[in-house]
Design a protein that fits this description.
The chain has 96 residues and is mainly alpha-helical. 84% of the residues lie in helices and 0% in strands.
């Protein structure tokens, strides 16, 4: 059975494929696309934050509130951008 860390790392490949498709399709609202890319920032921040939590506090990231909350900020931002981007796309489609 794969460890959660291995599975997490392997999941990046299909996500990068998804980003490639969404970017090249030209049909994804720009703001939503930015939100999908911000999710990569969340991943990039979460990995070192998890290591820092383990090394300096001896705990998992989820158990170090200030660090976990700071990393989750990027996930929240990503979600907001995706929702607002698709909302803009729907409104623009309805107007045309």
């Amino acid at each position: 059975m794969l460890s959660k860390n291995t599975l997490f790392a392997l999941s990046l490949f299909p996500y990068i494929g998804f980003l490639w498709f969404m970017t090249n399709s030209g049909k994804t609202p720009r703001l939503a696309l930015v939100g999908f890319y911000v999710l990569l920032i969340f991943v990039a921040v979460t990995i070192p934050a998890g290591i820092y939590a383990k090394v300096h506090y001896g705990k998992d990231l989820a158990n170090v509130d200030w660090l976990h909350g700071s990393a989750e900020l990027f996930l929240t931002l990503s979600n907001i951008l995706v929702v607002l981007g698709f909302r803009q796309g729907i409104i623009a489609k309805q107007k045309s």
